[in-house]
Design brief:
The protein is mostly helical. The protein has helices spanning 2-16, 19-34, 38-59, 61-66, 104-109, 119-134; strands at 70-72, 82-85, 88-90. Strands 1-2-3 form a three-stranded antiparallel sheet.
């Protein structure tokens, strides 16, 4: 089930745009953050987050539900969605986090600034979340 669901997640995202486009959006937003251009960050961040989130909410809700995974709005500011199964909650993230920091904004900006991930790393994180959720017993 994990392999099929992971393939669906990847395919749904690639249906929206090719990997190179996802990575270009990431690079554009990262450069805006790096240059401290708050106007450009504001202009790019909302559509960037919405692009990732709409795929899960609109294209993947049914396959995830069939696997017993509930989709909800993300709690972390750089998460794609909150995924829950049998009381276990995971959030696939768009950035690397400093796990030692409790504040979600600070943990995303540790290590010299926001560390957005590229498509394949995001997909690997998504797969890791799914693997953890599917290894839990359904209630």
């Amino acid at each position: 089930m994990l392999n099929a669901l992971t393939a669906q997640v990847r395919a749904a995202h690639l249906l929206v745009r090719p990997e190179e486009e996802w990575d270009a959006l990431t690079d554009d937003l990262w450069r805006a953050y790096d240059s401290k251009d708050s106007d450009l960050v504001e202009q790019l961040s909302e559509p960037y987050l919405a692009s990732w989130r709409v795929v899960t909410r609109n294209l993947l809700a049914e396959p995830l539900a069939a696997a017993g995974i509930r989709v909800a709005r993300p709690a972390h500011p750089w998460a794609i969605a909150t995924l829950e199964r049998a009381g276990v909650v995971r959030e696939p993230l768009l950035c690397s986090l400093d796990q030692d920091m409790s504040d979600p904004w600070e943990s995303a900006a540790a290590g010299g600034g926001l560390q957005l991930q590229h498509f394949n790393d995001i997909m690997a994180g998504y797969e890791s979340c799914l693997k953890e959720l599917l290894s839990t017993s359904a209630a």
